[in-house]
Amino acid sequence: MRPDPLSQKIDWTSALLFGSLVIAGWLNIYAAEYDPEINQSIFDFSTSAGRQFIWILTSIVIAFVIFFFDYKFFDSFAYIIYGIFMALLLFILVGGKEVAGSKSWVGIGAFGLQPSEFAKFATAFALAKFLDQPNRRLTDLNTLLIAFAIIILPMAMTVLQGDTGTAMVFAALVLPMFREGMPPLFIVIGFSILAIFLLTLLVSQTVILAGIAIITLLALGLNARRPKRLLYIVASTIIVTLAVRSVDFILTDVLKPHQQKRVLSLINPNIDPLGIGWNVTQSKIAIGSGGFGGKGFLEGTQTKFDFVPEQTTDFIFCTIGEEHGWIGSIIMLGLFTGLLLRLVYLAERQKSTFSRVFGFSVVGIIFFHFTVNIAMTVGLFPVIGIPLPFFSYGGSSLWAFTILLFSFLKLDAHRMQVLQRW
To answer: What are the residues facing 99 on neighbouring strands?
Structure first.
């Protein structure tokens, strides 16, 4: 019997890392809910671990189905897929199911699906399709504006649903744009705005604006004979100044009260230790109590007494830190790092712009989820409800990441056929 050529081209390293992370996540979900007095089975469908097992099985089915698709499907139907999910996000604004203050769910029997999770790969497909067209250059203003519009549309609708955390993930799609030639100035401005936003919470706006004025005058003086640079300096100054002036508006009129407290608790962890700061405080206690080698599987005391809310979802890393300690945490971080590095390698070897842009979109989305989730649990970032990829409980999240990853692996398996088409 002749071997299937496709099976030889699939990047089994990435598939193996995916499987390892999913199984490790499933075991930690079981550990997070485990009650020694009840001693429930990991396959008990009344528990999160039992339901997650169903999501895992269906994710495997999804992965196999993706490999039965023609690889040209993703390119050909990218805009249609994007349009379908944008329409679904619009529908959610009117008829969505509200969960934990976010109107971003569709109820399907006893289960719920979150379309904004799937909108991530739909947006990645649309961005890849747009940048794959002839003569697209991200140094061209029109191309840049349209690319940003593709990203901002689902982001804006997700914000209107009340899910600011998920909306922020779409910003990760700036990574493939940067790889495809977007001027670094936009990255610098973006990080500067974020830094200034946080600085404005600590220092008076008057002091910051005075500092910006001094820096601008110095920059203008040093570049007096370079008109093009002067234009960039003036534009950057206007953008940064507007960012400073908009902080109060964002805090009071855009963010909800609980979100405002989360941002302020990042600056001052003791602002509400028994309220908004409780999760992060208990999270750090749980992780720290694990020490070097951890307390052992199913032996986490912080877990057993429910000190950390949302421990199977947003704070699943607490279980790893408490029960498996520093060693287990390093192994988990190593698996994620290995997967991300492997995906970067695969993205760089693509023969088409479409596949390369989509590959870096996958890297950006997974990296954003991974870093922000870990940063949340150790108090380095506000709690915004970002799940840990492949680990956190939830069907929407696992299905969306499965589609993201295996769609890219499908494209990678056929990368040489792109050359044959040309």
So the answer is: 102
